[in-house]
Amino acid sequence: MKGENLPKIGLLFISAAGTVESYAKMNLHPGEDKFFDKGEHFHHVNLGGYLVDNAICADTNNEKHAEHYFGLGAAIYVAGVLITKGGYQADTEVMKNYAKKFDLLVAMANHNRPTGGWAAAGKSAIWSKDGLLATANETQSAIVVAEQCATGWSGCVIAI
Question: Which domain covers residue 136, as residue numbers?
Answer without folding.
Answer: 10-159
